[in-house]
Amino acid sequence: MPLTITEGTTANLDFVLTADGSAVNLTGATVTLVLADKDGTAITRTGDVSVITAASGKIRYAPDSTDLVASVSPLRARFKVTDSGGQVAYYPSGKADNWTVTPE
């Protein structure tokens, strides 16, 4: 899902992970955010990702003030889900979402 957000935002961002139109059950899973800058370089972030409602696929990203920077926007974003058996899936599974970060 495309997102436009202001640089320095630290407010919680909630998402629902879906596959084929249905919520992904995240029970027992670990979720991380994978970000890359406009050139495809991985971004090290310090904000946290947590599962809010596992059965309905709801997660929360709590960015730190230096996570989202306009000068490297647009960002490519995916959530990496590792289930309790060690299987890994990415959401979205195709092309990464575009996050546009605007200056403060």
In short, what is this structure?
Helices cover 0% and strands 46% of the residues. The chain has no helices and 10 strands.
Describe the structure.
This protein has 104 residues and is mostly beta strands. The chain has a single domain (3-94), classed as Sandwich (Immunoglobulin-like), CATH 2.60.40. It is 0% helix and 46% strand. Strands 1, 5, 8, 9 and 10 form a five-stranded mixed β-sheet that branches. The protein has a three-stranded antiparallel β-sheet with strand order 2-7-6, with no helix packed on it. The model has no long low-confidence stretch (mean pLDDT 96).
Instruction: Give me the strand/helix succession.
Output: EEEEEEEEEE
Report helical residue fraction.
under 10%
Main sheet summary: 5 strands, mixed
At the third CATH level, what is the topology name?
A: Immunoglobulin-like
Summed over residues and divided by their number, the pLDDT gives a mean of 96
Number of helices: 0
Radius of gyration (CA) equals 13 Å
**CATH class bucket:** Mainly Beta
**Termini, distance in Å?**
22 Å
Outline the fold blueprint.
Layout: E1 3-6, E2 13-16, E3 18-19, E4 22-23, E5 30-36, E6 48-53, E7 58-62, E8 75-82, E9 88-91, E10 97-102
Parallel strand pairs: 1-10
Antiparallel strand pairs: 2-7, 3-4, 5-8, 6-7, 8-9, 8-10
Task: Supply database-style keywords.
single chain, 104 residues, mainly beta, Immunoglobulin-like, 5-stranded mixed beta sheet, 3-stranded antiparallel beta sheet, 10 strands
